[in-house]
Specification:
The complex is a heterodimer. Chain A is an alpha+beta fold. Chain A is 31% helix and 25% strand. In chain A, 56% of the residues are buried. Chain B has 2 domains: 76 residues, Beta-grasp domain (Ubiquitin-like (UB roll)), CATH 3.10.20; 73 residues, [2Fe-2S]-binding domain (DNA polymerase, domain 1), CATH 1.10.150. In chain B, strands 2-1-5-3-4 form a 5-stranded mixed beta sheet, with helices on both faces. The longest helix of chain B has 20 residues. The chains are: A alpha+beta, B alpha+beta.
Chain lengths: 708, 160
């Protein structure tokens, strides 16, 4: 079971405004609060069919001093929405981006933009913010027109000033915000149907605006969730089971109770200590943990996990086209291979962290989660309080990569804070994050393909067990296909990740395509192009092959140095990569020396940030491709540390040659995920080119060790 | 048993009475409110907690505070000269070498320590030195560019 599906990702709640109006005045001062009825685009591409729902969002606040605040429920965790959404608002309000103060992810203030996931900020929230900002501009312009008794179309707006050329007068947004009559006009929420600025007229969007609070990052002034301190705050530690599925039978709290300054609580399976320092809380927890007795249950180990997943494969019916069975039997050649992917962890630099504070039965939590509103709901139901008595604030946080959809630390901190009547901080350790955060699913993927006499694929059978269904469809033109996404019994808690199942499905598909190409005696590039009608994928594939000089490098393959390529599409963006690897057979090491990647996600909204995302995706993708895997036995993670779980470091960085293709005739898609999906299969294919051996499981260095 | 420990943090002398086994990182963050150094792994394998101790790079998560007695500790908060950023801080801004930014204080202080010791590092030396600092956003390319840029500026400053 994947804990978070993208279908759940957008759930705007139209009542947000009612909760907020008072807070606005308290926090933003008096001025204009502009609430906009927004059509929220649900789904992207094939998913959800682009349906729309309506939400009333309090988007823009113009203070009487001229400060413009823009509200969003999205979360900044390094992927760049703070700059991008500021640009979106600035563009449509016709002001400089430095005029925008973006207020993010505080349930007391911001509309519900859905959880920050699935590359949805760009296709959903950017348009919503632009609509809100464009509507605000139009309302203000209309008001000015009314005041001057002219047609609004005769007025121009720039830099926050509305200009009446005929009488050579201007009026600023701040002037309008200060006038007594104007507030009345803005108490109604307004429907937004105003056209957005076309791409070729963008002034702020499309430029490399840096992250607005980056100076606070380099000076250490920014407060991450784990940096938040409240008066009289304690540090809490939570008792963890020694293995998955273990239940607490008995525990003696007296040792901790006897310690100076220590508070301890047990509520069923939940046991926690708190003290004025984390050190004391840790000592107290160790003291009570030593007295605990547990009932354990047998658990599947990582050695047998793929067999287990396959054995327990369940659910799902294949989607079919044509007749795969007949086409296979008519095929000249049939190949059948199985690919495997290990469980991996997100390991964001900042582990889960929260501070909880109760006041008059109301809870405020500062924490690092992807969905503040969703976390507000889950906290309310876990703690048995109405959700309007819970406020969740997410300061810009230290990474997530799909791993922070759930708010465990927030709930733990809230329980301790309620038990002890004081604010409590809970900061997970790295070992807790490795062990108790959900991970990216392992996968078993069975591929079967049939080639006709001309070397064309005529039959395609793809059964993917456990990783989820993203990017499961083949983008290649094949007349007979059967595609299955099946669930299984996951021994580990699993959930979202950067591009989630697409990492596994694209790995298997693109590696298997390479096997079919070899069986057909064809060049991997020519073989793909021969089966590819999707022009967007063709464009990135051809671009990357040209920049990489594919034919030359392929000719230069040696037994130590190989090249491989792969492509794919997901979340309405397209990617292709060529890599060069060097093989150290004796040590079974794969050194990725050079990566050339082309990526296209429609009109580029912030080139520097998109480049960071693509660089990050490629380099992050090296980890699960080569080294990363959770090892577990008897319900324990055996490598819950950076010592045994190897994430990419400076030394792993290949030469990166990245080509961002700006395509302006389609809507922008998000770019923080899909660039990860081409890297692993390209490496697998490069390893084959050098060694003649197929590595069919991630991480590949383990697989290589078994074959060389 | 608690001990009286004197720390000179960003030029300011402070005394704490605490268990000398506590990690320096926790004393800085919890007792002194200096939250620039971050917890990343608690065992000195990620560099998020990096500080300078008497000018040398130190991993504050695995430094018992007792061993920092009378030492000068520089954290990210103490690097700028008033409003003027240290060249390494400025280089991180100029290169946009920030994604989530949680590793950034440790990265910057590691680079500062490197350039103090070796103002003209080669790329190999930068990679070798910085390899103990993890960035999970995997922004290594731009961080590397920032360190290179800072190195060239430090060189210029030293020349002039």
């Amino acid at each position: 079971m994947i804990e978070d599906t993208l279908e759940m990702a957008e759930s705007p709640r139209p009542d947000t405004v009612k909760l907020s109006r008072r807070s606005f005045v308290q926090l933003l001062g008096t001025g204009l609060l502009i609430t906009v009825t927004e059509g929220v685009t649900l789904g992207q591409g094939r998913r959800g069919g682009g349906g729309r729902s309506i939400a009333v969002a309090a988007r823009i606040h113009i203070n009487k001093d001229g400060t413009i605040s823009v509200m969003t429920g999205k979360v900044e965790e390094g992927q760049g929405p703070r700059a991008q959404l500021s640009q979106a608002a600035a563009e449509e309000l016709r002001v400089g981006v430095d005029r925008i103060r973006l207020i993010m992810s505080d349930t007391g203030l911001v509309p519900d933009d859905g959880i920050t996931a699935g590359s949805r900020t760009t296709p959903s929230t950017v348009p919503a913010v632009r609509q809100g900002a464009a509507t605000a501009r139009k309302l203000l312009t209309d008001l000015a027109a009314k005041r001057w008794k002219v047609d609004p179309s005769t007025l121009t707006v720039s830099d926050g000033s509305i200009r009446n050329k005929a009488i050579d007068k201007t009026i600023t947004y701040a002037d309008l915000a200060n006038s007594a009559d104007v507030e009345e006009a803005f108490t109604q929420s307004v429907s937004s149907d105003i056209a957005l600025t076309p791409v070729d007229e963008w002034k702020t969007m499309g430029t490399s605006v840096p992250r607005p609070n980056s100076r606070d990052i380099v000076t250490g002034a920014h407060k991450y969730p784990s940096d938040i301190v409240r008066p009289n705050m304690l540090y809490g530690k939570i008792l963890r089971a020694p293995s998955y599925g273990a239940t607490l039978e008995s525990i003696d709290l007296s040792r901790a109770q006897a310690m100076k300054d220590v508070l301890v609580v047990r509520d069923g399976q939940f046991v926690g200590c708190a003290a004025p320092s984390a050190h004391t809380a840790r000592l107290a927890l160790e003291a009570v943990a030593a007295t605990a007795s547990w009932k354990t249950v047998p658990q599947v180990s990582s050695r047998e996990v793929h067999a287990h997943l396959k054995r327990n494969s369940r659910g799902g019916r294949p989607r079919t086209k044509g007749s795969v069975e007949k086409a296979m039997s008519d095929s000249k050649k049939v190949l059948s291979e199985t690919y495997e992917v290990a469980y991996v962890q997100h390991t964001p630099m900042e582990p889960r962290a929260a501070v909880a504070e109760w006041e008059d039965g109301k809870l405020t939590v500062w924490t690092g989660v992807d969905g503040p509103q969703r976390n507000q709901q889950s906290l309310a139901s876990a703690l048995g309080v109405p959700s309007d008595r819970v406020r969740v604030i997410v300061p810009d946080m230290g990474g997530g990569f799909g791993g922070k959809h759930t708010g465990e630390a927030a709930e733990e901190a809230a329980r301790l804070a309620r038990a002890f009547g004081r604010p409590v901080a809970v900061h997970w350790t790295r070992a807790e994050e490795f062990t108790w955060a959900y991970c990216r699913p392992a996968a078993v993927i069975e591929c079967k393909g049939g080639l006709d006499a001309k070397g064309s694929i005529v039959a395609w059978d793809f059964a993917s067990i456990n990783p989820g269904g993203s990017a499961i469809d083949t983008p290649y033109s094949i007349p007979n296909t059967s595609i299955l996404s099946a669930g299984s019994d996951s021994p580990l808690r699993q959930g979202s990740y950067r591009c989630l199942g697409a990492t596994a499905n694209n790995f298997a598909r693109e590696a298997f395509m390479d096997e079919l190409a070899a069986a057909a005696g064809a060049d991997p590039l020519a073989f793909r192009l021969a089966h590819l009608e999707n022009t967007r994928i063709r464009n990135v594939l051809e671009a990357v092959a040209k920049h990489f000089d594919w034919p030359r490098r392929r000719r230069q393959t040696t037994t130590d140095v190989g090249v491989g390529l792969a492509c794919g599409t997901e979340k309405n963006s397209v990617v292709a990569a060529c890599v060069q690897v060097r093989i150290d057979r004796r040590r079974a090491r794969i050194k990725v020396e050079h990566v050339c990647e082309a990526f296209e996600c429609g009109p580029i909204q912030n080139p520097a940030n998109l480049l960071s995302q693509v660089q990050g995706c490629i380099t992050m993708g090296l980890g699960p491709a080569l080294h990363e895997q959770l090892q577990f036995a008897d319900g324990k993670i055996l490598n819950a540390s950076f010592a045994g779980y190897l994430v990419p470091r400076f030394k792993d960085l290949p030469t990166l040659d990245i080509h961002l293709m700006n395509r302006t005739d389609i809507p922008s898609a998000g770019g923080g995920e899909t660039p990860i999906i081409a890297i692993a299969p390209a490496i697998a294919n490069a390893v084959f080119a050098a060694t003649g051996k197929r590595v069919r499981s991630m991480p590949m260095e383990d697989a290589l060790r078994r074959v060389v | 048993m608690d001990a009286r420990i004197t720390l000179i943090v960003n030029g300011q002398k402070t005394t704490v009475v605490t268990d000398p086994e506590r990690p320096l990182l926790e004393v800085l963050r919890e007792d002194l409110g200096v939250t620039g150094p971050k917890y990343g792994c608690g065992e000195g394998r990620c560099g998020a907690c990096t500080v300078l101790m008497d000018g040398q790079r130190a991993l504050s998560c695995s430094t018992p505070v007792g061993s920092a007695n009378d030492k000068e500790i520089t954290t990210i908060e103490g690097l700028a000269d008033g409003d003027r950023l240290h060249p390494v801080q400025q280089a991180f801004l100029d290169e946009g070498a920030i994604q989530c930014g949680y590793c950034t204080p440790g990265m910057i202080l590691s680079a500062v320590a490197l350039l103090e010791e070796n103002p003209r590092p080669t790329d190999e030396q930068i990679v070798e030195w910085m390899n103990g600092n993890i960035c999970r956003c995997n922004g290594y390319e731009k961080i590397l560019n920032a360190v290179r840029r800072a190195a060239s500026q430090v060189k210029e400053v030293k020349r002039s």
